[in-house]
UniProtKB/TrEMBL annotation:
Belongs to the homogentisate dioxygenase family. InterPro entries: HgmA_C, HgmA_N, Homogentis_dOase, RmlC-like_jellyroll, RmlC_Cupin_sf. Pathway: Amino-acid degradation; L-phenylalanine degradation; acetoacetate and fumarate from L-phenylalanine: step 4/6. It comes from Lineolata rhizophorae. Keywords: Dioxygenase, Iron, Metal-binding, Oxidoreductase, Phenylalanine catabolism, Tyrosine catabolism. NCBIfam families: hmgA. Fe cation binds at H343, E349, H380. Its cofactor is Fe cation. The active site is at H300 (proton acceptor). One of its GO terms (cellular component) is cytoplasm. This is homogentisate 1,2-dioxygenase.
Length: 456
């Protein structure tokens, strides 16, 4: 069955469909009929519009939702800066830290779990490009948390959409629009501005985040593939409405705004949405449902064939961000070097490993919870051990990646590495090149005179 086998069973219900118009009510009759903002919404609720795009964005791109809640989000005290000297995740406005743009291949050992912090304080920017204040670029984060968020705190990012890739542990995410349970081998996307709270029902968590500062994630075009395969729209899951009644408890709403942390006090829960409808909502996806496409004759296809979600630049076909996975799959190509070929790419490639062993890196240095970065035009490819094995393998049908799931955040932007990512985390492998590619040996031999090569 094309689904992941999860240790922790599902606990919530969902609505299915990517970029589908959903509606949900936790109390019968909470959704108005025919109108979005009647003079008196049903059940004494307030109507609030949540806009993920400009009002006048083209219909095919427009993402808006209507929320029907006990009190509107505006009912709070002024936001004040929190932890101003220590909390800054904006890659372009760090007055005391540098962003390093490096042509070297980089690889990190597994990042440490940190049981002392909650979700908000576990976010570490490893690399990024652009500026959230201009709504341009991406940020790449590691999260590692060991504590639930405070029972009366919620968080949102005004900077961009969070694409969350858990590697260890389980995230129970309570959002304004409903609840999501997110486990390793699942991803979730929480769009810009949506408020949520993260608890850890199975203990410490760790994983990766791609924050998209511009636009929103979409399914890639399928071209000659046709109408199905890769990530199918029906397999994405959105929450159903769930709300709480609390208008007497002090809550703190924390917002990541231009990379800095702000907080506002209010005397009601932000999770009071009794009903909603629209196109702007959080969602999750089981990577085990990805329908892989590959070559059945010769040559290794471009890794774009494994794209789950994409965010295009203003030049179609060139992505500000792609989320690409390398799932278990069959290789059957004849007379072909089956792992990814050696290459230099105009795109920057940040890779992570959720579990198992990535089939193009068998030397042992690329481990679950670790990462690698091959920046714009930085040469890379299979390590020497993998090249030797693949060059001499018997080319019979073989399944690779069983029990494994590697992924890639790919961007057309030149990605800079933060002080934390390069130095403070103390995870950069200094011997990455010497282990991976320096052992490669020349095999070139001049042909004997009069003998043809390649049929010439």
């Amino acid at each position: 069955m094309p689904t992941s086998s999860f240790v922790v069973p599902e606990r919530y219900r969902y609505q299915n469909g990517f970029n589908s118009y959903h509606e949900s009510e936790a109390v019968e009759g909470a959704l108005p009929v025919g109108a979005n903002s009647p003079q008196k919404p049903p059940l004494g609720l307030y109507a609030e519009k949540l806009s993920g795009t400009a009002f006048t964005a083209p219909r095919a791109e427009n993402q808006q939702s209507w929320l029907y809640r006990i009190l509107p989000s505006s009912a709070h005290a002024p936001f004040e800066m929190r932890e101003s000297s220590t909390y800054n995740t904006n890659p372009e406005t760090k007055p005391h830290e540098k962003i390093y743009h490096i042509p070297n291949q980089l690889r990190w050992d597994p990042f440490d779990l940190d049981e002392t912090v909650d979700w908000v304080h576990s976010l570490h920017l490893v690399a990024g490009a652009g500026d959230p204040t201009m709504k341009q670029g991406v940020g790449i984060f590691i999260f590692a948390a060991g504590k639930d968020m405070d029972p009366h705190e919620a968080f949102y990012s005004a900077d961009g959409d969070f694409l969350i890739v858990p590697q260890h542990g389980v995230l129970d995410v309570q959002t304004e629009l409903g609840k999501l349970l997110v486990r390793p081998n699942e991803i979730c996307v929480i769009p810009r501005g949506i408020r949520y709270r993260v608890t850890l029902p199975e203990g410490p968590v760790r994983g990766y985040i791609l924050e998209l500062y511009q636009g929103h994630f979409q399914l890639p075009e399928l071209g000659p593939i046709g109408s199905n395969c890769l990530a199918n729209a029906r397999d994405f899951q959105a929450p159903v409405a769930h709300f709480e009644e609390d208008t007497a408890t002090e809550w703190h709403i924390m917002g990541k705004f231009a990379g800095h942390l702000f907080a506002a006090r209010q005397t009601h829960t932000p999770f009071d949405v009794a009903a909603w409808h629209g196109l702007y909502y959080p969602y999750k996806y089981d990577l085990g449902r990805f329908s892989t496409i590959g070559s059945v004759s010769f040559d290794h296809p471009d890794p774009s064939i494994y794209t789950v979600l994409t965010a295009q630049s203003d030049h179609p076909g060139t992505a500000v961000a792609d989320f690409v996975i390398f799932p278990p799959r069959w290789l059957v190509q004849e007379d072909t070097f089956r792992p990814p070929w050696y290459h230099r790419n105009t795109m920057s490639e940040f890779m992570g490993l959720i579990h198992g062993q990535y089939d193009a890196k068998e030397g042992g240095g690329f481990k679950p919870a670790g990462a690698s970065l091959h920046n714009t035009m930085t040469a890379h490819g299979p390590d020497a051990i993998t090249h030797e094995k693949a060059s001499n393998a018997e080319l019979k049908p073989a399944k690779v990646g069983e029990g494994s799931m590697a992924f890639m955040f790919e961007s057309c932007l030149m990605v800079g590495v933060t002080e934390w990512g390069l130095k403070k985390c103390k995870k950069v492998q200094e011997d990455y090149n010497s282990e991976s590619w320096e052992p490669l040996k020349p095999h070139f031999r001049r042909p004997a005179k009069g003998k043809s090569q390649n049929g010439a």
